[in-house]
Q: What sequence folds into this?
DNA sequence: CTTTACGCCTGACGGC
DNA sequence: TGCCGTCAGGCGTAAA
């Protein structure tokens, strides 16, 4: 499932083929995504040149002079480059034809993703305006996280998964980062000290960076811009390892539900 | 304000 | 073999 590293991997993969090139055709086979693909999208992008492409949280923003194309991969979505004329398969919902040969194909079996158009400043768009800082920037640091945690009764895992606090930390990497930081996921956010938040912030950045380096995590069907899987799943320390030996201390990995999400941790390594 | 529950959707998997 | 219930998950939204 795409988390921040997968989205980053996708953006890096497709960027060289998009920026500076013109969208020559749009094919929408299935507009019923999380929100319907607007019918006016074709008028906004066909015949227009892509000027830039960036990631914000887990959103992909493809910039045109007239506005931004917003794409979210949901939990089963992928974007991959192929060639115009390549036959489409089940759940290949949208094709963006680029120039005369290339094709960017949006595939999303579960249709939790979205393809939308943004007029004006993307930062003010309803889906983006309430987002917290990017986890890999200096705005996300121990002092900031400590301040955000005060008067919060919720578990620290919920805190770091709250997109208003920090974006891009999904369920997999939340468990992974808390393990690396030696913090139990169920600990109340307000009872964690600044030094521990320092370790947690570092662990989040390290985990995300390592996953980006590995090309993202592939648990089911994620593929990057080239249609290749990521390899970070081989490096997961606790996620989906309930009952297996901790890679550090050999004790059994525990599993419990926090915030309606499966959560994995080591009772020995995490206090 | 914070916190919680739900629903969207398909595919994988286990039990019978 | 097939059917059916359950789970998985990002995240916006409604409700508490």
A:
């Amino acid at each position: 499932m795409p988390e921040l590293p997968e989205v980053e991997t996708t953006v890096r993969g497709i960027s060289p083929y998009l920026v500076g090139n013109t969208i020559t055709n749009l094919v929408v086979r299935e507009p019923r995504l999380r929100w319907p693909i607007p019918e006016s999208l074709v008028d906004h992008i066909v015949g227009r040149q892509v000027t830039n492409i960036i990631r914000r949280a887990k959103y992909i923003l493809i910039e045109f002079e007239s506005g931004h194309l917003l794409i979210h991969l949901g939990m089963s979505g992928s974007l991959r480059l192929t060639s115009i004329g390549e036959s489409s398969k089940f759940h290949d919902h949208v094709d963006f034809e680029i120039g005369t040969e290339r094709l960017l194909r949006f595939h999303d079996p579960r249709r939790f993703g979205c393809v939308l158009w943004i007029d004006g400043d993307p930062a003010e768009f309803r889906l983006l305006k309430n987002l917290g800082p990017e986890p890999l920037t200096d705005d996300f640091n121990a002092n900031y996280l400590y301040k955000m945690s005060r008067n919060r009764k919720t578990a620290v895992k919920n805190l770091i998964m709250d997109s208003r606090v920090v974006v891009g930390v999904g369920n997999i990497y939340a468990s992974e980062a808390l393990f690396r930081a030696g913090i139990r996921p169920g600990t109340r956010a307000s009872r964690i000290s600044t030094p521990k938040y320092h370790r947690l912030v570092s662990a989040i950045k390290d985990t995300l960076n390592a996953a980006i380096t590995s090309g993202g995590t592939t648990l089911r069907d994620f593929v990057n811009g080239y249609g290749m899987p990521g390899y970070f799943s081989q490096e997961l320390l606790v996620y989906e390892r309930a009952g297996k030996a901790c890679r550090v201390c050999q004790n059994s990995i525990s599993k419990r539900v926090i915030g309606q999400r499966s959560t994995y941790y080591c009772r020995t390594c995490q206090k």
